[in-house]
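From: lab user (bench 3)
To: helpdesk
Subject: output format question, protein + magnesium ion

Hello, I'm new to running complex predictions and I'm not sure whether the block I got back is the full result or only part of it. Here's what I submitted:
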Amino acid sequence: MEFALETDGLSKVYKSLRGRVRALEPLDLKVPPGKVFGLLGSNGAGKSTFVKTVLNICKPTTGRARILGVDSRNPAARKQVGYLPEGTAFPTYLTGRGVCEYFGKLMGLTGQRLKDEVHNKLKIVGMSDWADKKCTKYSKGMKQRVGLAQAMLGEPRLIILDEPTDGVDPQGRHEIRDVIAKLAKDGVTIFLNSHLLAEVEAVCDDIAIMYRGRMLETGPVATLTERMSMRDGRMQLRFRTGDLPSSLPAALADANPIEGGFNISVSDREQIPALIDELRNAGIKIYEVEQYHASLEEAFLQIMDDGEHKGVGGQQ
Ligand SMILES: Nc1ncnc2c1ncn2[C@@H]1O[C@H](COP(=O)(O)OP(=O)(O)O)[C@@H](O)[C@H]1O
Ligand SMILES: [Mg+2]
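Helpdesk reply: Thanks, we reran it on our side. This is the complete output you should expect:
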């Protein structure tokens, strides 16, 4: 299978006057085509370094990367990719259309094809009405949308977006998400970096969680949150009930009382009906039974916490 993006022991140590920074530990990552893949991590985790190193904008210290099957040291690899760098600033004297035409020309588009593509991409990102206004007049969200239009020029099969919605208001985020979904529907692979959990949960099929230059977890969002919803392989349940009797039924020996009910874990869902029967026999009123599902945020915090305890990336 040809991966949209593949790394093999890719690592990066920045060397500066202040010393060495191990930004990326050797990483092996495979992103299958046709997915929206999210690289999630706090500020400074190494997300931007990862994409820059993959694109060979930043020279890897060890290892290598392949983009759609082509070694990324080969400039031909980058030709197939659209890229929105983190926090892009456009020249203030250009309009949104001017920015897109400039980048279009850099990639070799000319004449009518250039005009048409720029027109179409600006339309997709909802910037047609603003296309001929100077970038200085744009909000952060508008700038990001122009950046997204620029990344879509030339119909790339892989688009890499570094923090596409950072600093963008909720409405603008929603519009950017819609564009990403539309691209994904057309079969474009999207790789996005974000420290915004809800964002990633809403738009990504698969994610990797990055922490101090390592990938702690990789997989489908649902698999990750499901696993984090269980504790020691047990389902977590929350019961909302009437008052509990002072002598609890045997089934509640391991329950954890909370305001208006209790939490309890079971190893198998088949235990739930018997548990309910026993509570009812004890005269306990049951108003609600709910299975605990971790949000991506809770799963993320849990994974970070585990990483901390394992001392991941302790030595710099
Ligand atoms: N050019 C650079 N020189 C030295 N250190 C850098 C450079 N760029 C990034 N770093 C450091 O590398 C680490 C990862 O940074 P970065 O890839 O920007 O993380 P993220 O994108 O996840 O916020 C940070 O500790 C950052 O300070
Ligand atoms: Mg970054």
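A quick orientation on your result: The pocket of adenosine-5'-diphosphate (ligand 1) is lined by residues 14, 16, 21, 23, 41, 43-49 (CB under 6 Å). Let us know if anything else is unclear.
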